[in-house]
Amino acid sequence: MQSAVQAPTPNELEAWHGRLVVIGEEYKALMQDLLERMVPSDAAESVYEDMHQSFQAGAQSLMQNPPLLWQAQSRLLQDQYQLWLQSLRGLAGEEVEPLITPDKGDRRFKDDAWRDDPYYRAIMQQYLLFSRMVEELIERLDGLSEDQKRNLSFYARQLVNAMAPTNFVATNPEVLRKTIETRGQNLVEGLARLRKDLANSAEGLNVTMTDRSAFAIGENIAVTPGAVIYQNELIQLIQYTPSTEQVYKTPLLVVPPWINKYYILDLRQDNSLVRWLVEQGHTVFLISWRNPGPEQRDLTWADYMQMGPIAAMEAIEQATGEKSVNLLSYCIGGTLAASTVAYLTSTRRGRKVKSVTYMATLQDFRDPGDIGVFLSERVLEGIEAQLERDGYLDGRVMAYSFNLLRENDLFWSFYINNYLKGDAPAPFDLLYWNTDGTNLPAGTHAWYLRHMYMENRLVQPGGIELDGVKIDLRKISTPSYFISTKEDHIAKWNSTYYGALLPKGPVKFVLGGSGHIAGIVNPPSKNKYGYWTNDALPETHEEWLEGAEQHEGSWWPHWQAWMTENGYVDTEKLVPARQPGDGELEILEPAPGRYVRMTIPEVLGEASTSSET
Fold first, then answer.
1. Per the structure, how many domains does the chain have?
2. Could you tell me whether strands 246-247 and 507-512 are parallel, antiparallel, or unpaired per DSSP bridges?
3. pLDDT tens across 43-58, in order?
């Protein structure tokens, strides 16, 4: 049990004076910095307006149902009265059961004081009761569309979580203890960290999540041996060095997302999907996307297709002599892969792809999840205006938006640790990758948001036209393997499943455990998350799950078995291992290449205050 917080003595108060002066100066400088950054962009203004409209719609709905408001207020008053009685009993030394406890996954209230100290226990319960009232009140509102209710719920959740007692010095027992112990030095260091993070942010606040100086691309992350054998304005193509004497005849091309960088698939040796694929006998090629800036503003989705997968396939043919490849794609890279296979099918070149795998990939955007909050018509118009003006979307803005989808874990926890406790974040390679963002070119991103998310045109026959060719996913006969994850909040599996119903060729749908990253990067050596399979593809995802069989371990070996048992890689026709540079293409530079090393500040010509060199 943690000891109760003790008030400082008069002598300690005198010693605090110097600290308070320093804190005051830091705070003054911080406020000046904030004032200089207060002018919102077009995209930010559109979000603020959408937030205002959402709360206004909620208020109008509530006005039309006075009994609902009365019931909510009455219940809250009753809860407050019970909490008051409970506090009196606790102060009298009586053991009492709490009225409400945090959810199992809520790590904000893990300190013992939230359970053992009557003062903090009462604060926590009062906050949780209020939070529950807001959530239930919004759920019971009538007259709102699903989108309106989703947006209102999201914005209300952001405000309620921002008001959590853990986010303030005076009501966070851990922070208060440390403030007294260090005589405020934690706040001095925290304000300095906050100023530094603000300087490295585009809009909002990109909190430092890890010790970035602990990692170096190509040294302790993204270290699978290989070489860059081809590049253009948009991609570098990496060919990885084989680790087996013989390899499958058909090469494997990996198409990662260009939102963040490819090395999520090659973080460490013990969880690297790239390394594992090489060890299975695949000749692995991987697209490393450029981190674009204003000069790439006019790049389109068709350019990403032509200069990405199609250019890579042509380079692979030069390097190996093989005219077809197997595709392995991830997230938005999978959406591009589906577009590419459909385009090749419509131009009578479908045989260039022997099989295609989609990892956590949206093709049917019927349910975008919480990210749909940022994709209303009002918000999208603001994003489009900003893209038109700047020529790109700053990747730090995208990162901040994604962090708000899991705000307690990906924002407020670091806010408390970095700025209130004054602690330096610990080294963590996954969080290094998460903060190593990429910009998004205007011509591609605006088109993608409107045509895919807003209008869901990829699933419509002829709904998407690329380089004058109307594509149709229903015409794809290429065998397809879909792997989605059950807790994915970015590519929700109840949407990704319906992409598996589109192709006319053979399809295998698999559901992994965990979320968008952990469920995909799930190596057999860890044996951490299982997966579900079902040979049938019923009309709904609920029916699929009802008939699915659960398996232990990683989905990776299941995919490898699917590849070999169906002949997409021929185990009877192995060829000598291919080294980078053996074919017609020379080695340009060692992997991981220079494109993946390009940071946003470098691309935009900014002076970074990061400790990373």
1. 1
2. unpaired
3. 778 888 888 999 999 9
- CATH number for the domain spanning 482: value is 3.40.50.1820
Neighbouring C-alpha atoms within 13 Å toward the C-beta of 264: 27
Is residue 347 within 8 A of residue 482, CB to CB? The reply is: no
Structural domain for 535, as ranges: 230-366+456-599
Which positions ≥6 away from 80 have C-beta within 8 Å?
126, 129
Confirm whether 228 is a catalytic residue. no
**Residue 585 identity (one-letter amino acid):** L
In a domain, 428, yes or no: no
Phi-psi bin for 433: left (phi > 0), alpha (psi -120 to 50), beta? alpha
Contact in structure between 291 and 595 (CB atoms under 8 Å):
yes
What's CA 439's distance to the chain center, in Å?
A: 15
The H-or-E segment that residue 510 falls in is strand 507-512
- What is the 3-class SS of 54-82, one letter each residue? HHHHHHHHHHCCHHHHHHHHHHHHHHHHH
Give a yes or no: residue 19 inside a domain. Answer: no
Q: Which residue has the higher pLDDT, 40 or 80?
A: 80
| pLDDT at residue 594, rounded to an integer | 97
Closest CA to 524 of 309, 270, 310: 270
Which of 47, 299, 331, 600 is labelled catalytic?
A: 331
Confidence (pLDDT) at 6: 56
Residues in the chain: 613
pLDDT at 44: 78
Residue 178 tokens read as 């440390």
pTM of the model: 0.90
Unique residue bearing structure tokens 């705000």: 407
Nearest CA to 497 out of 371, 360, 373, 369 is that of: 360
What are the pLDDT digits (tens) for 428-461? 999 999 999 999 999 999 999 999 999 999 999 9
354-368 in b/e form (b: 16+ CB < 10 A) is bbbbbbbbbbbbeeb
pLDDT at 37 over 60: no
DSSP track, 280-322 = TT--EEEEEE----GGGTT--HHHHHIIIIIHHHHHHHHHH--
Q: What are the pLDDT digits (tens) for 294-340?
A: 999 999 999 999 999 999 999 999 999 999 999 999 999 999 999 99
pLDDT at 89: 81
Domain-located, residue 71:
no
d(CA 511, CA 517): 13
Name the nearest CA neighbour of 182 among 406, 298, 18, 71. Answer: 18
Name the average pLDDT for the chain: 91
| 489 belongs to a structural domain | yes
User: Is a pLDDT exceeding 80 seen at residue 91?
Assistant: no
Tokens in use for 77?
A: 């008053």
